[in-house]
Specification:
By secondary structure, the protein is an alpha+beta fold. It has 10 helices and 24 strands. Strands 7, 8, 9, 11, 12, 13, 15 and 16 form an 8-stranded antiparallel sheet that branches. The radius of gyration is 22 Å and the shape is globular. The structure holds guanosine-5'-triphosphate and magnesium ion. Guanosine-5'-triphosphate binds next to helix 1. The site of guanosine-5'-triphosphate has 20 residues, from helix 1.
């Protein structure tokens, strides 16, 4: 069974939570205040099994996000682990500011697939629906949701019109999505922490890679605390293991809820290290102001957020639409690895300005010439695993890179490191 995580995105009140409920029967608004105010404040979850076009069963985990501009940071805690997005646009309102902002965020996070639903189709006449359809097609053209490859479906959660079509389109898109790698090293970004009577500490999250089994030991990042997995639940049912791409709940022994919080990450022990510096390729949105060397920004990756200082390699100002190698110096230690995506928001007023790709989470402490850093980071982007390993070893000169440190630096298993090293690529 293939497990896929589906995120909602879109402006406030456009019908995201209603659509998730109409599809799954589950109300993802779980907070008292949400029900009272009729808006989503924090991320919510639901799940659904659908038959794929090839007859296989797809297990969809939904992460429903808030549309309110004040809660974009909660939205960011939800989208970090999604495989595909359902962009929700109300037919009676069309494209609005958070339609754009959420869509920008999905692009910056390199979400590769999805579909668009024109909700509240019952609230408009046929002509209006057609106009909105055209407006949305224009908006999406050339993007990962280009109408040529990604469906746009009109639906009403109120009357049920179009919902079957949404399900069929969703099954098709989900069946085409790349499944996450359950053989890789495990990482679970924590999005909720609570106590359950008789069980103790429980955390939930989207397992972004690897497999977590009952009785396994894990390390909490940052901080390094060791915990034991006493129980595993997937989509609300007990299980012996959770696989990448599944909404996962873990009952943990050896830790109290005070030591756990959203933004922390669980991973195998003695493998990774938290970092305060990451070298990245950063892209600025066309709508952003130029970013100056030394500027402070809000940094978001998976479920965590912190303040960061942007140290630009090369020109001392990054222009809108441009991309550049940038070191981000984080205010708090965090577990980040090459290949991780992140979002930056302006310090004040807080708006999304850009995002990018972590290329190196273990930059050298000593000062290096800019060309040396640029050459190294270019290799991190385009090199083969052998070339990347060779570059990581040789940049450390005569000290070299201990074998034990390679899995954590490159995010690969020890066996793979040994295979790469045995091929002799390190010799040149
Ligand atoms: N007529 C009509 N109303 C709808 C439909 N879907 C949702 N609504 C109404 O629109 C309002 C907002 O719906 P929600 O599903 O809470 O919207 P949301 O996008 O989740 O809102 P946030 O999470 O706060 O961003 C509610 O009053 C719903 O009853 C629909 O298909 N037709
Ligand atoms: Mg909602």
């Amino acid at each position: 069974m293939k497990s896929v995580i589906v995120g909602t995105a879109g402006h406030i009140d456009h019908g995201k939570t209603s659509l998730v409920k109409a599809l799954t029967g589950i109300d993802a608004d779980r907070l008292e205040e949400e029900k009272l105010r009729g808006i989503t404040i924090d991320i919510g979850f639901a799940h659904l099994e659908l038959p794929a076009p090839n007859g296989e069963t797809l297990r969809l985990g939904f992460v429903d996000v808030p549309g309110h501009e004040r809660f974009v940071r909660n939205m960011l805690a939800g989208v970090g682990g999604i495989d595909l997005v359902v962009l929700v646009i109300a037919a009676d309102e069309g494209i609005k500011p958070q339609t754009r902002e959420h869509f920008d965020i999905c692009r910056l996070l390199a979400v590769r697939r999805g579909m668009t639903v024109l909700t509240k189709s019952d609230a408009v006449d046929r002509d209006t629906l057609e106009v909105v359809h055209l407006e949305v097609e224009d908006f999406l053209r050339g993007s990962f949701l280009d109408p040529a490859n990604s469906p746009i479906v009109a639906a009403s959660s109120l009357t049920g019109a179009g919902l079957d079509e949404v399900k069929t389109a969703l099954a098709k898109v989900a069946s085409e999505a790349n499944a996450k790698d359950s053989a890789a090293l495990a990482r679970l970004p924590i999005d909720r922490v609570f106590t359950m009577k008789g069980f103790g500490s429980v955390v939930t999250g989207t397992l972004v890679s690897g497999t977590i089994r009952k009785e396994e030991e894990l390390e909490v990042f940052p901080g390094g605390k060791r915990v034991r997995v006493r129980g595993v639940q997937v989509h609300g049912a007990s299980s012996d293991e959770a696989l990448a791409g599944q909404r996962t709940a873990l009952n943990l022994a050896g830790v109290s809820t005070e030591d756990l919080a959203r933004g922390m990450m669980l991973a195998p022990p003695e493998t990774f290290r938290s970092t305060l510096r990451v070298d990245t390729l950063l892209a600025l949105l066309p709508t952003a102001k130029p970013l100056k060397h030394g500027a402070r920004v809000h940094f978001h990756a998976y479920t965590m957020e912190t303040i960061a200082e942007a140290r630009l390699y090369g020109p001392k100002q990054l222009e809108p639409r441009d991309e550049q190698f940038v070191q981000l110096r984080l205010a708090e230690p965090t577990l980040l690895l090459p290949g991780d995506r992140f979002i930056l928001r302006q310090f004040s007023p807080v708006v999304t300005i850009g995002g990018g790709l972590v290329l190196d989470a273990s930059p050298l402490a000593r000062k290096q010439p800019q060309y040396e850093i640029a050459t190294f980071l270019t290799k991190m982007m385009a090199g083969s695993p052998q070339e990347i390993l060779a570059a990581r070893v040789s940049r450390r000169g005569t000290l070299g890179l201990p074998l034990d440190a390679v899995p954590g630096e490159m995010n690969i298993r020890r066996e793979e490191v040994e295979k790469l090293a045995a091929r002799g690529y390190l010799a040149d």
